[in-house]
Amino acid sequence: MKHAVISVNLAVVLFGMAGLFARWIHLPAIGITFGRVLFSSVALGLFILIRRQSLRVGKRDVILLFSAGTVLALHWWTFIESVQVSTVAIGTITFSAFPLFVTLLEPLIFHQKPERWNIITSILILLGVLITVPEFSLENHMFLGVLAGTVSALSYAVLTIINKSVANRISSTVTAFYEQATAAAVLLPFVLRVSIRPSASDFGMLLLLGVVTTAVAHTLFITSLEAIPAQLAGICSSMETVYGILFAFLLLGEVPTVREVIGAVIIVGAVITAQVRKR
CB–CB of 141/85 below 8 Å? Predict the structure, then answer.
């Protein structure tokens, strides 16, 4: 149990560092995203080979996994774009609003009646996002960052729902491998149209982003779920926003505005409260 708690928190710390690479790597968002999923899928593929896991999945699941991979490409592309046009804080805060979209989409897809507390949580999350917006104008780069981050949150909600539908049939590591390999394939035509020349530093950063903050972090997170409840893992995951803002302050000198801090507190508080209530 102790090792599992350490693993899940280390994984969330690594997840929280991902936004920093959008600043450290001097490439467009599409190039960073492609490098991330490429290196991550290779690392996960090697991990699967070492553990001798089977990659065989049903025909119906192939369609679901390829769909999820396409959505994943959109998710990370818009997340990195959000950070690049605004700040790490804006990118992580708006992304953390994905439970709002899960609450809205899940009842429609699975024909479930939405719970009252989920609706209240969603309203609080929406309020937290709206507070971070300084001006509702397409000429404001912060507003553009919020828009991109919102698309990132929406796409991650769709990805979460798809993953939920295959969770009982396919291991999480195999699912992640197929999704990230698909994302790399989907992004390849777009990358070829852009003149991208990564430096040695950019290449090394992409390797760290794909292997350490994605493949390794994902493996640690999945491994921890074998020993701790999903609710506890969810509470720990809520800290990703806090870590992202803290790292951006310490390593990039990005000082969050009062609006961003208030928005982050509302969103993280709402998500943690919801998870504790479920527990």
Answer: yes
